[in-house]
Amino acid sequence: MKNWGTLTITLLILLAFAPLISAEDLNNSNDSVSVQAEIIPLEIPTIQLYVDSSIELGEIAELEIGINPKERNVTKIIIKWGDGDEEAITSFSLSILGIYSITKEHEYDNEDDFTILVEVDCEGDFCNSEDESIDVKEPEIIDEDPTVTLISPSNNLEIKADKVTFKFETEDDFKIDICTFELYLKEGSFKKREYTEDIANPQSGSQISIDLEDFEDANYTWYVTCKDNNSQSDDESRAFSIQTTRYEQQKELEGLLVDLEDFIKKQDSLPLDEQKALEELGITEDLKYFNKKLIQIDLDLGNNIKFISDSTKREKRRIETIEEYEKIKEEIPQDVEIISSDEYIKNSVSIPFEEITLNYSNAKSLDLDKRKIRKLAEMNLEAQGKISTSIEIKKIRLTYADKEEDLSIIRKELKISDNSFNRVLEIFPGNFNEEIEFKTKAGKLNENMYEINLNDLDKNEIIYYVKEDIGINKLKDTETVLFEEFSTNRNILTGFAVFNSDNMTQKSIIISVILTAIGLIIFFFFPKKTKVKAEAYSKDPNVAKMIYLLKSSNEEIKKENIEKAKENYHEIKKIYPALPEEVKQKAYNKVEELRIEIDKREMRDLVREYETIKAFDKVKANAIYNKIKSKYTRLPQKFQQKIYERIILKN
């Protein structure tokens, strides 16, 4: 109860009772003389109300009621609040002053002017009422300015990193509309805005973070300005400085190290073909070396070189280190992609062996006449039956920071049945003008011929690459041949012995001729049965497996089970080098026919898939088109023509 209101009600009630008490009554209150009272009608009760005339919505209206019954028996008090709510009071008691004093509270749900009506019943009948007005208003809004608090970095902090996290918070009694972050680079007395960011509707009291990096070494100032929805604002600022680099290339080198480490980690998740390509190029090992070298360069440029006392030597070392860094920077890839891949087996040599021998002789400065060159050519030609070459050609794309580079990697796996040979020649066609980079140790004899020692090979593999995307047909024209510098003294060969004609007498020549004749008679009149040879070959497990795989593959092709046929084909490639020479020559055509049939059916499926999706999935269609182009050159000419007219010509 409000004290002033209660006091007011009490005074009013006392004033109402004052006329009933006369001075005479007070003076003669103990007089025993009885006087006949005059009959006077009962007065109605008086009602006094007190309530604040105006309150805000949400506040409680407090009504104080004072009732002087005036000798009447008050039985009920009814309060009507003016908003449809009312309440009846039937239980109440007189105060020591002889009045009814009641206090009631009420909360209004909406703003308006309301009339509070209090009715009093005496002995069950209405005997009086009183009303009072109250104005319920919307609360008065007092909007305070928002506040901005900067948290980090602290003022005038020197930071030795080029990444900074800015933290701040803002508060407002209502709603923050926007906060603006600004970063300025200080150049003397001038400021240059480097960055700005707006944060819309930030939550009051929440912490806001902004991460920035790649700073220059300089002085900076950062500002935060926050506005509420009544455009009231607050702003704060701080200064800081960045000092990170010890030398000019430091940031670039550190970024390069991150890229390098990312690529090294990425290798583990690359497809096996991509991993193998990186290994064949030697990039896998190079990257590990580059990583160690860059760390050392960072230490040298940032710290070690400064300890060289001689200024001339110090500057020379600095320049050499930077040059080494620039070279490494250009050799670190960021991505690798296999564009296409082809495999085939080659056991024939298309270049005349006399030409090979003559070029070899000239490169080695051997003093050989035509007869010896011819003889050496014949002997090496005969040796080619002891070598089989499986070739894989991969076209790959390496992506660097500022360029892309296409390479063709050639890997040749050699199967040699005679361990007495220790040399092969890698011969390129005359129109092969591309620069060749051997990963295998190889000696260059001339522009088109390289000599490779078999003892230098790892897993009997020759690996080299050219820095261009060249056609597969051009690569197929390369030759890998066994070559030895056999003795070229003129010999007469018979079925039994070899004679050196340079040291023979006439009698010896006659004897050798007779022996040769005897050998020819034995050869022609006592031929070996081919049936015996066939039986001998059939017992060879590799021959038996070859026959089975060829038959099985052809059956799988008829069933359109191309994947199974391909598995068989790869098994055939593995056992082919171990076949007897005569069987190998006969089987070669069958193996090539199988490969062509597999390629034709794969090409058919690729063409169908390409034509189906080219209209709605250009990315996938382009990938399929590249596969079609890579396999296209391996097909027979008539089939090539069909694919060319159907797909390539229309693309």
Features of this protein?
651 residues; alpha+beta; five-stranded mixed sheet; 27 strands
Quick recap:
The protein contains 16 helices and 27 strands. It has 651 residues and is an alpha+beta fold.
Describe what this molecule looks like in 3D.
The protein is α+β, with helices and mostly antiparallel strands and 651 residues long. The chain has 16 helices and 27 strands. A five-stranded mixed beta sheet has the order 2-8-7-4-5, with no helix packed on it. A five-stranded mixed beta sheet has the order 10-16-15-12-13, with no helix packed on it. Strands 17-18-19-24-21 form a five-stranded antiparallel beta sheet. Helix 3 (250-267) runs antiparallel to helix 5, helix 13 (562-575) packs antiparallel against helix 14 and helix 14 runs antiparallel to helix 15 (618-632).
